Amino acid sequence: MRKYVIMGVQGSGKGTQAKMLREDLDLAHISVGDIFRWHVRQHTKIGAQVKRAMAAGELVGDDLVEEVVRRRLGIHDWNYGFIIDGFPRNGRQAEFFMESYDIDAVIHLELPDDEVRRRVLSRRLCPNCGMDYNLIADRPEVEGRCDICGHGLITRVDDTPEALEARLTDYHAKTRPVLELFRRKEVVHDVDGRPPVDEVQSAIRKTLGLSGYRADD
């Protein structure tokens, strides 16, 4: 069983890389962001709290994040392990996580702030089916329309320049220190997040010693 954490600033490709590992290694991909966005789409009480925080460019409160993670991991659908992204984002969350689970490795995707801005401000979302697009590398076939369901695409509420700047400031102030905390207790692998997706994935697998590995091998 393999248990990984993937970290990096917004737009670094955490979700994409985690999904690629999930498919080959049969890991459960646990995206805190995806869970929260589901709640926002379903107009739940949690969704209302998340929406307010996202619109202000703030991080969701620790108590709520920890509860969501605890519930998700409590499902125990991760026979071969899991890879979690979007958590932990500060020291308290990291301590909670390390006390509760044995982590095999932390994958840290490095990306300069200028590239983060370029990527994030080009993102679009289908509010109907949840499909993500990027106007730089993954444009829809019909401009402004989802390829899957045809619904009009929108900009995420947390993808405004103002919200992004607030998150970058918060990331450098709170989340980067988490990496240092992990480095004292866990194996942290720094991977350049700038190359094409497949190259980043190859670099991740190489540093984790997973080249050619599949869950059923």
TrEMBL record:
Superkingdom: Bacteria
Pfam families: ADK, ADK_lid
Record's subcellular location: Cytoplasm
Binding site for ATP: 11-16, 123, 195
Gene Ontology CC terms: cytoplasm
GO BP annotation list: AMP salvage
Residue numbers binding Zn(2+): 126, 129, 146, 149
Keyword match Nucleotide-binding: yes
Key words of the record: ATP-binding, Cytoplasm, Kinase, Metal-binding, Nucleotide biosynthesis, Nucleotide-binding, Transferase, Zinc
Primary location recorded for the protein, binned into one broad class: cytoplasm
E.C. numbers: 2.7.4.3
Region (NMP): 31-60
Residue intervals of the Adenylate kinase active site lid domain: 123-158
InterPro entries, alphabetized: Adenyl_kin_sub (IPR006259), Adenylat/UMP-CMP_kin (IPR000850), Adenylat_kinase_CS (IPR033690), Adenylate_kinase_lid-dom (IPR007862), P-loop_NTPase (IPR027417)
Positions of the UniProt region annotated as LID: 122-159
Pathway involvement of the protein, from the record: Purine metabolism; AMP biosynthesis via salvage pathway; AMP from ADP: step 1/1
Domain notes: Consists of three domains, a large central CORE domain and two small peripheral domains, NMPbind and LID, which undergo movements during catalysis. The LID domain closes over the site of phosphoryl transfer upon ATP binding. Assembling and dissambling the active center during each catalytic cycle provides an effective means to prevent ATP hydrolysis. Some bacteria have evolved a zinc-coordinating structure that stabilizes the LID domain.
Family of the protein in this entry: Belongs to the adenylate kinase family.
PANTHER family for the chain: NUCLEOTIDE KINASE (PTHR23359)
Primary role: Catalyzes the reversible transfer of the terminal phosphate group between ATP and AMP. Plays an important role in cellular energy homeostasis and in adenine nucleotide metabolism.
Name of protein: Adenylate kinase
Lineage of the organism: Bacteria, Bacillati, Actinomycetota, Actinomycetes, Micromonosporales
